[in-house]
Design a protein that fits this description.
By secondary structure, the chain is of the alpha+beta class. It contains eight helices and five strands.
């Protein structure tokens, strides 16, 4: 199959034709939403970022038509809009999947298994970085940091967290996304499509039943430092294994035979969390199986 010069990103020195306009009904709907967004800011150009999310929610990526729309609404040049849209990686410049699967490959996640997860998913899905599966379900990308090092290695799907992953758990995750099964993140609201996520990021409320209440808060690993700063006793362990093992307990331990308490919403574990010792407990991990401390 051949591709055009524009698809390959090759310039032949010819001027680019103006971006096609949105259909009248689409433009009217977007203009209504755009007015609501612009009204939040004392300076209209400050609304550019949420407006880019708005046009991204329409087509799943930021098109030339979308950038022209933003420029028209804000009285900017298309060059000014393009400079912003190409600077932030959250704005997609080409069609992408319903689910953006980002694997953190920054330092801690990488050494804990992020590199192995990303390489395995590329082979498993048959796509490279930034590419989309043939069914249009998943776009895979590596992310430099998800700001969740205490749950490394982390995978994000449409910006929702899936913590403590392994190669096996990540493969299971993408399988279930592709088959349309309900998938719950470790923390945060239930998953929705990338277009729906973009509209929420544009500043419109998430109207799904229970979505806001389910957003939760930081996990116990993130809160340990805060507890110590307050002078509280550190828990005996931070992460909860899924096999019915001990949960966080005071240093003096719970009485023998006492029932383990249920995890609070802030400590919710996804069904896709890997066994919690470390991602290196994955036998396929290049570092080998995890060793107990002192071994």
């Amino acid at each position: 199959m051949t591709t055009s010069s524009s698809e390959r990103g090759v310039s032949l020195g010819m001027p680019e034709l103006p971006a096609p306009a949105y259909p009248d009904d689409v433009r009217a709907r977007l203009e209504t939403d755009a007015r609501a967004i612009v009204a939040r800011y004392p300076d209209s150009r400050s609304a550019l970022l949420p407006l880019l999310h708005l046009v991204q929610s329409e087509e799943g990526h930021v098109t030339r038509t979308g950038m022209q729309f933003c420029a028209d609404v804000l009285g900017l040049t298309t060059a000014e809009v393009t400079a912003v849209a190409t600077f932030y990686t959250m704005y997609r410049r080409r069609p992408s999947g319903d689910y953006q699967v980002g694997v953190c490959t920054n330092t801690l996640c990488a050494v804990m298994g992020g590199d192995a997860i990303f390489e395995s998913l590329q082979e498993y899905l048959g796509v490279g970085n930034g590419e989309t599966t043939d069914d249009g379900k998943i776009t895979l990308e590596h992310i430099e940091c998800n700001a969740a090092c205490d749950f490394a290695p982390v995978v994000m799907v449409n910006w929702e967290f899936f913590d403590n992953q392994t190669v096996q758990s990540a493969k299971r995750l993408v399988d279930e996304l592709r088959t349309g099964r309900t998938v719950s993140p470790t923390r945060g609201a239930p998953l929705c499509t990338f277009k729906e996520t973009a509209r929420i990021l544009a500043g419109f409320p998430d109207e799904r039943d229970g979505a806001v209440e389910a957003s939760g808060s930081a996990g116990p690993a993130s809160l340990t430092g805060l507890r110590l700063a307050r002078g509280e006793t550190a828990p005996a362990r931070v992460v909860h294994p899924r096999d019915g093992g001990p949960h966080d307990e005071p240093q003096d331990r719970a009485p023998s035979g006492a029932a383990a308490r249920d995890a609070s919403p802030a400590e919710h574990l996804s069904s896709h969390d890997a066994p919690q010792e470390t991602s290196a407990s994955d036998p396929a991990h290049p570092a080998g199986p995890a060793a107990e401390e002192g071994e």
